[in-house]
Amino acid sequence: MKKLALLSIAALFAISACKKDDHIFDKSPDERVNESLKGYKQKLTESAHGWKAFLFPKEGGGYTFMMKFNAEGNVSMTMDFSDASLYNPEESTYRLRALEAPALVFDTYSPYIHLLSNPDNFESPSAYETDFEFIFKESKGDTIKLIGVHYKNELLLVKANQEDDNKLKKTHEVFGNMNGITTYFKDLDVDGQKYQITYSTTLPRNINFSYIENSQVKTFSTGYYFNENGLQLVEPFNTGKSAIAGLNFTEFDPTTQIVSLITNSGKAGTIKGGTAPLQYDLNTAKEFYNNPSNGSYWISTGGFTIDGVADAYNVQSIPGFNFLLFWPKYNPAYSRLGYIVNGGWASYGPAPIAKFTEDGLISFTSAGSFGTPPATIKPIVDKVTAKWIDPSGYYVIKTGNKTYDLVSAKDARTWISFE
Fold first, then answer.
1. Calpha distance 144→51 (Å, rounded)
2. pTM, 2 dp
3. How distant is the alpha carbon of residue 136 from its chain centre?
4. Of 115, 164, 410, 419, which has the fewest CB atoms closer than 10 Å, so is most exposed?
5. What is the CATH T-level fold of the domain 168-274, as seen in this structure?
6. pLDDT digits 0-9 by tens, 213-235
7. Which of 342, 337, 324 is nearest to 370 (CA)?
């Protein structure tokens, strides 16, 4: 009987055993990948109003695109990098490929999706680490999640509706009007609580909320990006009363210079100009002076902003201009505010001497210059020098891990950013 049972079990295994060349799946790996790629392409091209695309660079914050894919392999897109890129669609091509997994590849140059990875698009020494090849990670409903192949940037695609593009443009219009607030410091009042906000409009897109708690200034910093509902925080700000995850700018009054807004939780608020920080760290100026981002110097790509006008002295119009370079310890006796033009030092610009005041300001006097600028640009250089050595001095505001702003202590209507 025992022998019979063993024979029966052996027969059962023999019947159920798979052959060496049997497939677990009905289709081969290549067939399954091709089917997946076909499904993604169908989903991308069938959205009548395209896709909202949110790209999150490693440096922080995010950029928003509106993308429309067609079956012929073309993609038309706008990007919220500037007014020009937001209103002027550009077309390039894309492919769906099998890399280590199904992938979306923007395979010909686009002035938008490739912009952040191309150093030629910036007056800075290097590009930013952003991808243009993305692995599909998840597709649920109207949302597709992708991850960059090289830098692991997140790309989020959300199916757009007819109104999304206009809403995004409206958000940028009102946010841009905050330049009408002519002071650097911007006071946010929400639900009876007061904060000061600072933000960068170029990469990295960071926003900082400063507030007083137990007689101490605290700062919450996070990245931001835009969608059809306004400015969104990468990480919500817990105010103690509620969490602010987004700010929807509804109106700007040019007479009062006040921006009206509603938070994501429905709380009404306003932003208006301020002339001084809530509370000032007396050590920040020396920290800036003694610890340049690369160990030697700081760079500024846009010069001074005055009354909300970026590059008010038009340093970017200097032929071959790359950036301003502030080298605090260029010489034991003086610093150098230099002009990098066509990749090298220009033979002009001031040799300032720094002074630190008891109230934590930094100011400069002039020890001379490094030469006379050409007559065509001399008015620009002279204006920058005069503003740099303004005896009122500057607050030094830390805006990120390795970024600082120098803000006029006279009226906070002039500032310059360094990285």
1. 10
2. 0.75
3. 23
4. 410
5. Lipocalin (2.40.128)
6. 888 888 899 999 999 999 999 99
7. 337
Whether 182 contacts 308, CB under 8 Å: yes
State how far the Cα of 349 lies from the Cα of 109, in Å rounded to an integer. 38
Residue 294 CB coordination number (10 Å): 10
| pLDDT tens-digit series, residues 338-362 | 999 999 999 999 999 999 999 999 9
- In degrees and rounded to multiples of 5, residue 107 shows phi and psi of -95, -5
- How many contiguous H segments (helices) and E segments (strands) does the chain have? 6, 27
| CA angle in degrees (0–180, nearest 5) for 284-62-231 | 85
Amino acid at 361: L
CA-CA distance, 406 to 366, in Å (whole number)? 17
Residue with tokens 């805006």: 399
Cβ–Cβ under 8 Å, residues 384 and 378: no
Question: Which single residue is written with the structure tokens 């073309």?
Answer: 74
User: Looking at the domain 284-418, which fold is it?
Assistant: Lipocalin (2.40.128)
Extents of the domains making up the chain:
29-162, 168-274, 284-418
**Can you tell me the distance from the alpha carbon of 330 to that of 298, in angstroms, rounded to the nearest whole number?**
12
